[in-house]
Design goal:
5-stranded parallel β-sheet, Rossmann fold, alpha/beta, 4-stranded parallel β-sheet
C-alpha cells in the first residue's frame, strides 16, 4: 500500500513538473508580427529622396546608418533590423503606392518615421484599417495625436501648432505692437502653423496680422509672394516653408532690403541645408525654435550626447554634412525606435509595439534639450510638447529663454 501510494505521489509530482515546464514555455513563448523572425525585424519607411523636399532625405539616410550600427553591435535581442526606405518624391500618390508595397509585398512590422504631412495623411486611414503602426511620423501636424480615431498612428516631434503658439506668445511679449505677415505652405503643414499662431495671438490676431500669403510646393520660385508681403509694411514675417523655399525666402527678403523680425519654422532651421545656401549674411537675427541640441552650437562641445552622435557618424556616416541638423532628427527617432523594440522583448507584434509606444515614461535621448523627455499615455500620443527659442548669430543658432510649453491649454 505504501509503495502504491509512493508511485501515486511520484505521478502527481511528475504531472506538476510537466505543467510547470509547459507554463514556463508558454510564458517565454516568442510572439511575432509580420516582418519578424528569430533573425530579423523588417521596418518600412518612405522619404523624399527626390522632388521639392529632397533635403529631408537626410533624416532617413541617418536612420539607415544608425540601424547599421545597431546591427553591427548585435541587433535587437539578436535580431538585425532590415530598413526598407523607399522614395516617395514628397508626392502623396507616390507615398500611397510605396506604403502599400511595404505593407503588402515587403510585409514590414511597422511604417516608421515616414516624412511629410500630406504623404502621411494620404496613408493614415489605410494603415489604421490594416492595423499597421504608423510610428513616429516625421511631421509636426497635430492630427497624429488622435488615439481615439487613429490608434495606430503616433507622431514624434512637437506639433506645428505648438510651435506657432510659442512664437506668437514671444511676439506678444517682445513686440506687442507690430504688423505681422504670414508666408505659409498651402497644405496641412502650413495651416497647422497658422492655427497655432492665431491661437497664441488670441484676440490680438485680427489687429496684428496684416497679410496671409499661401504658396504651393509646385511653384518654381516664391519671389512674387515676398514682394507682395513687403508691400504691406509688415515688420514681422512668419516664414512657414520647407527647406528649398525657406532658403529662397531668406535670400529674397535680403535682396528686397526688407528687415522684418523673421521667424522661421524649425523644419527649415538646418544650417547645412537652408542657412548655408541662403547665405549666413542674410540669416542674421532669424528666430526659430528647437527641442534638440544643435551640433553646431558651441554650447554642446563637451556634451556626452554630442560626443556619442559624433562617434556614431565617424563610424557609420563619415561623409555626412555635420552642419545639417536633420541628422539629429534621424538620430533621435532611430534611437527611440531601438529603445521601443528592446522594450518589447520577444513579443514583437504590432499590438505590443503600440502598447509600449503609448506608455513611454520620461525617456531620455542624448540629443534632446535638457528637461525634454518622451512621455506618452493611451490618451496622449504626442511624445514631445516643449520648445526653446533660438536666434541665428554669426554662423550658429543660439538658444535663449526658458523651455516653453506649446500646449495652449497650459
Amino acid at each position: 500500500m505504501l509503495r502504491q501510494a509512493g508511485f501515486g505521489i511520484a505521478r502527481v509530482f511528475a504531472g506538476l513538473l510537466v505543467s510547470l515546464l509547459a507554463g514556463q514555455a508558454i510564458a517565454g513563448e516568442k510572439k511575432y508580427g509580420p516582418g519578424v523572425s528569430d533573425t530579423e525585424i523588417r521596418i518600412g519607411n518612405t522619404s523624399p529622396y527626390s522632388g521639392p523636399a529632397s533635403a529631408f532625405s537626410m533624416v532617413a539616410k541617418t536612420e539607415e546608418a544608425y540601424f547599421r550600427k545597431v546591427n553591427a553591435e548585435g541587433g535587437i535581442n539578436g535580431r538585425r533590423i532590415v530598413f526598407l526606405s523607399y522614395d516617395d518624391a514628397y508626392s502623396p500618390p507616390k507615398a500611397v503606392e510605396q506604403t502599400r508595397r511595404l505593407v503588402e509585398s515587403e510585409e514590414v512590422l511597422v511604417v516608421f518615421n515616414a516624412l511629410g504631412t500630406a504623404s502621411n495623411s494620404a496613408v493614415q486611414k489605410y494603415l489604421n484599417a490594416k492595423k499597421v503602426p504608423q510610428l513616429f511620423v516625421s511631421s509636426g501636424a497635430a492630427k497624429w495625436n488622435d488615439p481615439k480615431n487613429f490608434p495606430w498612428t503616433m507622431g514624434f516631434t512637437p506639433s506645428y501648432e505648438t510651435e506657432g503658439y510659442i512664437y506668437a506668445k514671444y511676439l506678444l511679449r517682445e513686440r506687442p505692437v507690430s504688423k505681422v505677415a504670414i508666408f505659409f505652405q498651402n497644405d496641412d503643414f502650413g495651416k497647422d502653423y497658422l492655427k497655432g499662431i492665431k491661437a497664441g495671438l488670441g484676440d490680438r490676431a485680427t489687429s496684428m496680422i496684416v497679410a496671409e500669403e499661401a504658396f504651393d510646393v509646385s511653384e518654381p520660385t516664391i519671389d512674387s509672394h515676398l514682394v507682395k508681403l513687403k508691400a504691406t509694411g509688415a515688420d514681422v514675417l512668419f516664414d512657414v516653408a520647407t527647406p528649398k523655399f525657406a532658403a529662397q525666402a531668406i535670400k529674397k527678403v535680403s535682396e528686397l532690403g526688407w528687415k522684418p523680425l523673421h521667424i522661421l519654422s524649425y523644419v527649415s532651421a538646418s544650417t547645412g541645408s537652408v542657412i548655408k545656401p541662403a547665405g549666413f549674411e542674410n540669416a542674421q537675427g532669424l528666430i526659430s525654435a528647437a527641442y534638440f541640441k544643435d551640433p553646431n552650437d558651441p554650447t554642446w562641445k563637451d556634451d556626452l550626447g554630442l560626443k556619442e552622435l559624433n562617434g556614431f557618424l565617424d563610424g557609420y556616416f563619415p561623409g555626412a554634412d555635420r552642419s545639417d541638423t536633420l541628422i539629429v532628427n534621424g538620430y533621435n527617432t532611430a534611437q527611440a525606435l531601438v529603445y521601443l523594440l528592446k522594450q518589447c522583448g520577444d513579443d514583437l507584434t504590432r499590438e505590443n509595439i503600440m502598447r509600449h509606444a503609448s506608455n513611454l515614461k520620461q525617456v531620455e535621448l542624448g540629443m534632446l534639450l535638457p528637461g525634454i523627455r518622451l512621455n506618452t499615455s493611451p490618451g496622449d500620443f504626442a511624445p514631445i510638447k516643449q520648445w526653446q527659442l533660438m536666434r541665428f548669430e554669426g554662423t550658429n543658432w543660439h538658444l535663449f529663454g526658458d523651455v516653453m510649453s506649446g500646449d495652449s491649454n497650459n
